Amino acid sequence: MKNDYTNLGELPSKQDLINLGSDKTCLAVEGLKAGYGKMEIIHNLDLYAGQGQSLCLIGPNGAGKSTVLHSIFGFTDIYAGTISVAARNITHMSSAQKLKTAGVAYIMQENSVFPNMTVEENLLMGAYLIENNSTVRTEIERIFSKYDRLNQRRYQPAKVLSGGERRLLEISRALVMKPTVLLVDEPSIGLEPRYIDMVFEILQDLKENEGKTIILVEQNATKGLQFADIGYVMSSGVIVMADHTRDLLKNKTVGKLFLGG
Question: Which DSSP state fits 114?
Fold first, then answer.
C-alpha cells in the first residue's frame, strides 16, 4: 500500500473476513492469486459471503475489483488458491460449468443485450445451457410475471428499452439459469439516478426474497455500501479493509477516500 491507503490500518485477517460472513457460507475464495497471462493482479485474496448476503468491493481504479469477479466466474488465469460454492470446489471449472452446475452467474458492466432481438429472445439466450424446453418456458414466464416492465415489451426489440430496462433485462437473463450467486459488475454505470434506484431495488429483492448471494463492484461507493451487508476495500490487488457496511459508511478515512466526504 502507499499514499493515503496506509491510513486504513492493519490488513484484515482471514478470520476477520470469515467473521463478517454469515454462519452459512455460500461463496468462499481462499488464497487467490489470479490475473491475465503472466500478470498477477490479485494477490493472496480471501473473500467470504453467506447465503442471501451481499458484499460490495470498492477501491480506486485498477485495484482489481472487476478482476475478482472475472476470477470467480472463470475469465482469468488462476495461479493459486481455491474458489468454492456451498463447499464445492469450482476453481478450475469453465464459465459455462460454473453457471450450469454451480449456480454462479455474471452480469457484466458493458451493455450486453442483443439490440435487434426481442426481449423474450434475449431471455431465451440466457437459457442456452438448459436442454429442457419446458423448464426454460416456465422460468421465462416466471420472470415476466415478476417484472411487468419487461412483460409489456416482450415482443419488442431490446433496442427500444431505456437504460434501466436494459439493465433489468441483463439481470433477468442471468436469472433464467436460477443462479445461487450473482456477480454484478458496476450496475449503476451509465444510468440516470431514477434507474439506479430501480436496479438496486431489484437486487435487494433478489437478496431478501430469493436468497441470492450477491458480490458487487460499484463505482458509486456510497450506493454500493448502502445496498450491501459487508464491504471490502481493495488496493493493488489486496483487501486493505473490510467491515460491515454500516461501519464503513461512518469511517472518516473511507469517507474521505471513496465517499466524497
Answer: -
The neighbouring-strand residues paired with 82 are: 30
> How many structural domains does the chain have?
1
Q: Which tens digits make up the pLDDT trace of 130-171? A: 878 888 899 999 999 999 999 999 999 999 999 999 999 999
Residues 70-115 have pLDDT tens digits of: 999 999 999 999 999 999 999 999 999 999 999 999 998 777 899 9
Instruction: Locate 26 and state its grid cell.
Output: 455460500
Question: For strand 25-36 and strand 39-50, is the pairing parallel, antiparallel, or unpaired?
Answer: antiparallel
Distance CA 161, CA 10 (A): 46
Number of Cα atoms under 13 Å in the Cβ half of residue 233: 29
C-alpha span between 146 and 154 (Å, rounded): 13
pLDDT mean over 115-125: 95
- Give the domain range for residue 12: 2-258
- CATH number, domain of 58, equals 3.40.50.300
Strands (E), the chain: 25-36, 39-50, 54-58, 77-85, 88-89, 104-107, 181-185, 213-217, 230-235, 238-244
Q: 137: phi > 0 → left, psi -120 to 50 → alpha, else beta; which?
A: alpha
Give 5's pLDDT tier (boundaries 50, 70, 90): low
Task: Please tell me the distance from the alpha carbon of residue 98 to that of residue 94, in angstroms, as a whole number.
Answer: 6
Residues in the chain: 261
Q: What is the per-residue pLDDT for 129?
A: 83
Q: What's the alpha-carbon Rg for the chain, to the nearest Å?
A: 18
pLDDT at 259: 82
Coil, helix or strand at residue 53 = coil
